[in-house]
Write a structure and sequence with these properties.
single chain; about 160 residues; alpha/beta; Glutaredoxin; 7-stranded mixed β-sheet; about 40% helix
């Protein structure tokens, strides 16, 4: 019974996320968030590259499983792909520990005020947006999607 309720709530949240926020085919909303050194980073800085914006948090099992896979993809396509992990739930120190422990070299940002989450309409963690080289959102992937499908969608934009 609890599992059925969880699935129903998750489904409703996903439908809500699809109805709100940025839509595929639209320009990705600009954002400015701080990297782990406290410097501001904007989406505009990555124009000309395919960008994966991944909203995540430490403690989300699915998030943690996919971060090394995203890192491998970033390593393989470093000239054409920018992966950005945005976190507003964990402390800066927790994110730094995670970065070191998982050997993450792609950009991790701290969104203290949830501004980026709100602009993108994120209600489910993890959520991933795939943005093409022109700044247009091509895919929105909510929750625990299959990594193979997510990877395929990313590669389609390279």
């Amino acid at each position: 019974m609890k599992k059925a309720v969880f699935i129903a709530v998750f489904f409703i949240l996903c439908l809500s996320a699809q109805a709100n926020g940025v839509k595929t085919g639209e320009n990705a909303p600009e954002f400015s968030a701080k990297n782990l050194s406290g410097e501001s980073v904007t989406l505009e800085a990555f124009k000309g590259k395919t960008v994966v914006v991944r909203f995540w948090e430490k403690g989300c099992h699915h998030c943690m499983m996919e971060m090394p896979k995203l890192q491998a993809l970033q390593d393989e396509y470093k000239d054409d792909l920018a992966i950005i992990g945005i976190n507003s739930h964990n402390s800066l120190e927790d994110i730094k520990v995670f970065e070191k422990e998982y050997k993450i070299t792609f950009l991790l940002l701290k969104d203290d005020l949830d501004i980026t989450y709100k602009r993108y309409g994120v209600v489910v963690i993890p959520t991933m947006f795939i943005i093409d080289k022109n700044g247009v959102v091509r895919e929105k992937i909510f929750g625990m999607a299959s990594w193979e499908k997510s990877r395929e969608k990313i590669l389609e934009q390279l």
